[in-house]
Amino acid sequence: DAKTTQPPSMDCAEGRAANLPCNHSTISGNEYVYWYRQIHSQGPQYIIHGLKNNETNEMASLIITEDRKSSTLILPHATLRDTAVYYCIVRVGSWGKLQFGAGTQVVVTP
Amino acid sequence: DGGITQSPKYLFRKEGQNVTLSCEQNLNHDAMYWYRQDPGQGLRLIYYSQIVNDFQKGDIAEGYSVSREKKESFPLTVTSAQKNPTAFYLCASSIGGQGRNTEAFFGQGTRLTVV
């Protein structure tokens, strides 16, 4: 069973920030939080990952709560090309299993 | 260019036939994975391998088999025992190694249709 819970869908206006929540209340101390997205009929694309500190890269920011039971992916300025299914995953190291849940379908509208 | 390649992109087979899906990577990654995706669903893990000559069952291994004879290759065989083989199959790889934490890279998938 997937170890994360995400809302099934959310809409976002183009140019606005998109905040995608994820609950991972059973996360272990050595498990990282990873985010991927999948545009229809393509392979998933890596976005960002973190352990306990907040992380930022050119695509997004990841905010992890202090108790590590939840996190939020922030797309700072959503564009139409950000329309995709976003997956939140917990994983032990880069060799650990990647187990996907159902993800959140994000639709960015003009 | 470095990357992970799945072939073919589309594959058609008759019911009852075994079929092998190819996955090759030139990223020098230790770990490789196979997933299945059905329409409107998330990815489900079939098999994964953390090192050459070793692999582990994922959540839905029944009806599938794999081999990992070379670091760069992780072929998946869909056998006649798989009751609903029609699906989108995705392969991924990552560096691996305890203490190392990097992303996995995915291929573009093979869409298998059994008629």
Strand order of the largest sheet of chain A: 1-9-8-3-4
Helix and strand pattern of chain A: EEEEEEEEE
Largest sheet of chain B: 7 strands, mixed
Output mean pLDDT of chain A: 91
Q: Could you say which structural class the secondary elements and strand pairing of chain A correspond to?
A: mainly beta
Low-pLDDT segments, ≥5 res of chain A: none
CA radius of gyration of chain B: 14 Å
Proportion of strand residues of chain B: over 45%
Could you give the distance between the termini of chain A? 36 Å
Largest interface: A-B, 23 and 33 residues
First CA to last CA of chain B: what distance?
36 Å
Oligomeric state as shown: heterodimer
Number of helix segments of chain B?
0
Overall average pLDDT of chain B: 91
Structural class of chain B: mainly beta
Low-confidence stretches of chain B: none
**Helix content, binned percent of chain B:** under 10%
Q: How large is the share of residues in beta strands of chain A?
A: over 45%
Instruction: Please give the count of helices of chain A.
Output: 0
Shape assignment of chain B: globular
